[in-house]
Amino acid sequence: FPGNSNADSVVQYKLDQPVIARYLRLIPLDWNPTGRIGLRLEIYGCRYTSEVAGFDGKSSLVYRLSARTSWTARESISLKFKTLRNSGTLLHAKGQRDHSLNLALERGKLLLHHQQADVSSGSGGKLLVSLGSLLDDQHWHHVKLERLGSHLNLTVDKTTQQVLVPAELSRWHIHTLSVAAVQSHGLQTPILPNRNFHGCLENLLYNELNLIKLAKQGSPQVVALGNMTFSCSEPVFVAVTFTDSHSFLQLPVLTSWQSGVVSIALQFRTWNKAGLLLTFDLQQQEGSVFLYVSEARLRLQISKEGNSLLELSTGAGLNDGQWHSVELNSMENRLSVTVDRDEGATAHTSIPLPPAADSQLFFGGCPAHGGGLSCRNPIQGFQGCMRLLKLDGQTVDLIKVQERRLGNYSDLKIDMCGIIDRCSPSHCEHGGRCTQSWRNFHCNCSNSGYRGATCHRAKYEPSCEVYKHQGDTSGHFYVDVDGSGPIKPQLVYCNMTEDQTWIIIQHNNTELTPVQASADTNQHFASFLYPSEEKQLSTVISQSEHCEQELSYHCRKSRLSNSLDGTPFSWWVGGPASGQIHNFWGEALPGSRQCACGLQDNCLDSSFNCNCDADYDLWTEDSDLLTQKESLPVRSLVLGDIHRPGSEAAYRVGPLRCHGDKNFWNAAFFDKETSYLHFPTFHGELNADISFLFKTTSSSGLFLENLGIKDFIRIELSSSTEVVFSFDVGNGPLEVKVHSDLPLNDDRWHSVRAERNVKEASLRVDGLPAALQEAPTDGFIHLQLNSQLFIGGTASRQKGFLGCIRSLQLNGVTLDLEERASITPGVRPGCPGHCSSYAALCQNQGRCVERASGFSCDCSRSAYTGVFCHEEVSGSFEPTTSITYIVKKPYEESKNSSSLHSSIYSDITLRGDDVSLSFRTSRSPAPLLYVSSFYRQYLILLINKHDELEVRYKLHSNRDEEVLSSRVMNLADGCLHTVTVRRQADSIIFQIDQNNREEFNVTSDVEFNVKSIILGRVPESEGLSADLAGLASAGFSGCLSAVRFGAICPLKAALLRPDGRVSVAGAVVASSCAAPAQADSYAAETTHSLSVDQPHSVDPGQPLVNTIRNDSALVGGVIAVVIFIVVCAAAILARFICLRKETYRNQEVKAAQPGEGRAFPFSGQPDSLSVQSENQKEFFI
Fold first, then answer.
1. How far apart are CA 1117 and CA 1110, in angstroms?
2. Nearest C-alpha neighbor of 1022 from the set 932, 1109, 1112, 1130
3. Regarding the domain with residue range 833-872, which homologous superfamily does it belong to in the CATH classification?
């Protein structure tokens, strides 16, 4: 550490670990080059009292408590220990009912077990907590076990972990405390002598009572067994640390080895899977010996000139950080390698093992510069610790090596083992598995639901609302409601509707269920189990603007409440945790004992508050939605009035449904450069993730800042194309930058995600590649902040952020920007203008509509429907099917019945028309679309007898019709085709599928005053030629989809929004033209029946419960399989025909105008000439 640099200033340092010492030694590393040598030093400490006991593995100490009068809620045991053994019992506390707590060292970790009855079997019992690592390092470690009411706290050094006291120990207290062994009742011999502690204890306190001091004083309550001493005579082993790949230890060979007997032993510990332990050259240039670790196994190799003469391997898992002993012995042509005193590997060899007399032993690696020495290391250098190096049974004096009186070394730390367990405590969050090497650790985040260097960042979005605004449609999604917080992801169904985005959580029974009366009980109990955990459910409900759950009760002579005294027969339990009992139904007020009909005053009998309470001998129901969030979800249901003769009932509890993510739309608008919001200090010492959305027109601004004494964290827009994330945790300021090629101050929403953990810092902006900055391996890791968290600016900065910040989350917690903005000058809650960012999600001429929280897509002028106007509206036609859409009735021009139709009319009376549709048919000729006017004008699209698209225009009543034919052939091939026809004045363009556009001209150039639009069969023939009238009356057989004439969508109006303007003749069935089915088979289209035939014996009011018989289901299943096989075969055949015809068509059609076409002013969409959308593609299975 640096000292002071002048005569006046004071430099103060606090030691990370307390030091207990009699003397203090200072080693000057450098002097002030501009001053004089001097020292002024002051040390602050306190008096320290030490009571020490030593245990040799056979001794122990037993403390028996005196009879106590009352149970106490607090007990504590504390001590310090040091040992060289990685296993052994520290404490065994036994209480009443043969329950005990056992604190033992196991592989260098402290494990606390709860044991019951006999412990002589050696079973550890139930593990309560594991803490610490590498505690066999010959250093003092502080341990405290404390019981506080219903919790146990275990502290090892400065780390504390809390566990819940098992129910069996709720009123348990200690009456016997065994130290260093598990002692029997007779206090003679330990039960498990192989698990005794070997080492030293200091200041063993039970409730502030020093037991070692009592043992010294000869207290009858404390009994020392075996050779326990009141001193610490633990042997000292000198260890050496190989810090990097250049480390090595060089020792001379022994002259006694020339006899042929060689013995080398050592102990090592490491985290690396590979590393050289020892190498030396053999006599007479017979080769070299390599003893090394590879794939966590010990291997011995003798090689000469690159050729392996002998290989042995033994051991496994040697990179576990524990001490492992290795012995290499050779005599009389017999070579053996032993690991941890196991039998190891043995080989017979004629190769003389003794090293050459002038060679050297190299441990851990070779010198970087040979210096004339023969040392070759084909394996990576060893990184770890070694001790107890023995040559022919004699321990090497490493202190002599340190003093350069024996051998040589480089890059070693002698007299210490510098191994660090980087996985204890583990920095891997959310169940990530930690693995490590000598200098680093790695987190395996698979199957955790999280990602990043420490499994901190959530893999899934926090709500269905976020998925919708990424362009996703309805389906099952994993949502992580608190981001990087402790709540796990859950699988839900997201229903993206045009109005709302619903999150739906099912339970174990959402079906209508009949109530079976039981002779044993007068009540029926039903419990509803949700796959989501309690915290997941409560967080979804609290973060949603609205939640609801259907609760339906169908009854026949089955009451909900007693009509005499109002006592409820039935009730339900709902709400957080175990829930509360409720007796209101539907949207009635809690505690009102009312149903929905009572609230609306429309019950069957006005003297009752529920329909079922009227006790009629007919089926009725009380059904409604529960919308009180604090009462949701429904957890159980109790039905009482079901045991009387004639009583029947059924119930249904629907899934939990919520919409409106309050966090996602929580926003603030900063309209002054000096304005800012402030929040409490951000606590992200080891892991910090920050995410938000912003939009601005300013080129720079501060998003967020939190300061400490020296540490800080900051995110800012440094320029119109760059976001900077900067911080300092004590290693100096670091910056992570993301540069965008496009400007970020375009008044559109942009997302920012910044994360800092002990391994790295990352910054993500929109979908740009993430920027990463690795943290120093052994630097400071704790981010220590103490000021307020400032958003949008700070009190010290003159220029802050101008614009909107939305959905700001810090470590999974959303800051309520709107609440704070409502009371802060210069900041307004909320932020309008979402269509500038999300309008592109509205497809197929859908129009983005602003909402207070988000947006919606208006599909009224689109031929599609759905949340993003992405779902095709398709119908299957028979030859007799006709859909007529009346655009203008006679004399309607003067009425202008609605502004909507007036605007549509003004669009289509321009000197041009815009037609698009998709179709699939196998029959020709066939009319597709017919447009008529009041002045004997018409437009018709049809497939002619040559299977080509034909468009006929008659724009002037005194002229003949003009026929335009496309050169694209074979359109009646049963495949899906998309057609676009556009006219501007006398210029017309055809676009069919992905073929080249075709351009035509007509002689007439007049306005087309539209009267009606007809799809399929044309019933009227007035003004049509004889051949056209016959063709139009033949009708269309197949599937039509996404039909649009200007802003009018006649097929959509007929199927989804029928009104007085639409009339349908014949049968038309909603279907999917993209589905692989036979186009000309009307019966082949899949439909869902709207009614079910029921037996006449069923009460018309009775709910349908399990009305389908099993044998019908079986027959239906067989029929479905047969139909599936036939349809698949037909689809494969149709696919083959389509491919052959498409090849022929591409060979025949030539490009009319392959260059850029003419732009038409009536086209409101830049992509209006695009071909099939994703929803119009043809799929074969």
1. 10
2. 932
3. Laminin (2.10.25.10)
Q: How far apart are CA 58 and CA 189, in angstroms?
A: 9
Q: Which amino acid is at 795?
A: A
38-72 as b/e, with b when 16 or more CB fall inside 10 Å? eeeeeeeeeeeeebbbbbbbbbbbbbeeeeeeeee
The alpha carbon dihedral of 190, 194, 200, 202 has a sign of negative
Classify domain 501-659 by CATH number: 2.60.120.1000
CATH 3.30.1490.20 is right for the domain spanning 239-414: no
* Exposed/middle/buried for residue 1099 (C-beta within 10 Å: 0-12, 13-18, 19+): exposed
3-state helix, strand, coil in the chain (%, to 5): 10, 35, 50
User: How far apart, in whole angstroms, are the C-alpha atoms of residue 1117 and residue 1057?
Assistant: 35
Give the HSE-up count for residue 216: Cα atoms under 13 Å, Cβ half-sphere. Answer: 14
Contact 1010, 1174 (CB under 8 A): no
Looking at domain 54-225, does it have CATH number 2.60.120.200?
yes
Do 54-225 and 239-414 fold alike per CATH?
A: yes
Terminal C-alpha separation, the chain: 72
> Which of 667, 717, 958 is closest to 827 using CA atoms?
667
Contacts 24+ apart (CB under 8 A), 680-684: 680/788, 680/789, 681/706, 681/785, 681/786, 681/787, 681/788, 681/789, 682/706, 682/713, 682/785, 682/789, 682/810, 683/785, 684/713, 684/756, 684/783, 684/810, 684/811
Q: What is the rounded CA–CA span in Å between residue 29 and residue 489? A: 54
Q: Domain-by-domain residue ranges, the chain?
A: 54-225, 239-414, 422-455, 501-659, 666-831, 833-872, 873-889+909-1070
User: How many residues in the chain?
Assistant: 1181
Buried b (16+ CB within 10 A) or exposed e, 633-672: bbbbbebbbbeeeebbbbbbbbbbbbbbbbbbbbbbbbee
Task: Of 402, 406, 322, give the one whose Cα is nearest residue 361.
Answer: 406
Q: What is the C-alpha to C-alpha distance for residues 82 and 55, in angstroms, rounded to an integer? A: 11
Q: Quick one: CATH architecture of 873-889+909-1070?
A: Sandwich (2.60)
Category of 811 on φ-ψ map: left (φ > 0), alpha (ψ -120 to 50) or beta: left
Q: What is the CATH number of domain 422-455?
A: 2.10.25.10
DSSP string, 1068-1116: EEEE-TTS-S-TT-GGGS----S-----TTS-TTS---S-S-HHHHHHH
What is the C-alpha to C-alpha distance for residues 878 and 1036, in angstroms, rounded to an integer? 6
For residue 611, the 8-state DSSP code is S
pLDDT-flagged residues of the chain (< 70) = 1-2, 5-7, 16-18, 29, 31-32, 35-36, 67-71, 117-124, 183-194, 344-350, 352, 370-373, 517-520, 563-566, 798, 889-911, 1005-1006, 1075-1181
Main-chain phi, psi angles of 1144, to 5 degrees: -65, -40
The residues, ordered by sequence, that sit 6+ positions from 1004 with a Cβ below 8 Å of its Cβ are 953, 955, 956, 959, 962, 986
CA proximity to 492, closest of 527, 467, 516: 467
For domain 666-831, which CATH number applies: 2.120.10.30, 2.60.40.10, 3.40.50.300, 2.60.120.200? 2.60.120.200
Helix, strand, or coil here: 817? helix
Nearest to 90 by CA among 156, 185, 36: 156
Q: Is the distance from CB of 242 to CB of 348 less than 8 angstroms? A: no
Tokens in use for 484? 């990087």
Name the burial class of residue 582, with classes exposed (0-12), middle (13-18) and buried (19+) by CB atoms within 10 angstroms of its CB: buried
Let me know: does 282 contact 302? Beta carbons within 8 Å: yes
The DSSP result for 189-238, as a single string, is SBS-GGGB-EEEEEEEEETTEEHHHHHHTT-TTEEEESS-BSS--PPP--
Read off the DSSP letter of residue 353. -
